[in-house]
Amino acid sequence: MEELIEGIRWAFIDMLEKENEWMDAGTKRKAKEKARAVLAKVGYPEFIMNDTYVNEDLKAIKFSESDYFGNVLQTRKYLAQSDFFWLRKAVPKTE
């Protein structure tokens, strides 16, 4: 998968150099820098496969086999709290 992503990245950079006449040299340079800096995020983050991490992260939610609606409410509350935690904070590039 990484080879495919690198191929796309270099095809984009090649296109900037050869097929792009409307950008000036400085803008092309910046676009190439950005293209090289893009992090490839395909699939899911590695921590998802770490059961210990996921269990610890989700331990605040107590699911019930008989209360579907309560499960949905708890999950939505958890997700909202998680979103509020990140509000106005810089998100790490790895997230």
From TrEMBL:
<protein>
    <recommendedName>
        <fullName>Peptidase M13 N-terminal domain-containing protein</fullName>
    </recommendedName>
</protein>
<dbReference type="InterPro" id="IPR008753">
    <property type="entry name" value="Peptidase_M13_N"/>
</dbReference>
<dbReference type="GO" id="GO:0016485">
    <property type="term" value="P:protein processing"/>
</dbReference>
<dbReference type="InterPro" id="IPR024079">
    <property type="entry name" value="MetalloPept_cat_dom_sf"/>
</dbReference>
<dbReference type="Pfam" id="PF05649">
    <property type="entry name" value="Peptidase_M13_N"/>
</dbReference>
<dbReference type="InterPro" id="IPR000718">
    <property type="entry name" value="Peptidase_M13"/>
</dbReference>
<dbReference type="GO" id="GO:0004222">
    <property type="term" value="F:metalloendopeptidase activity"/>
</dbReference>
<feature type="domain" description="Peptidase M13 N-terminal">
    <location>
        <begin position="1"/>
        <end position="45"/>
    </location>
</feature>
<dbReference type="GO" id="GO:0005886">
    <property type="term" value="C:plasma membrane"/>
</dbReference>
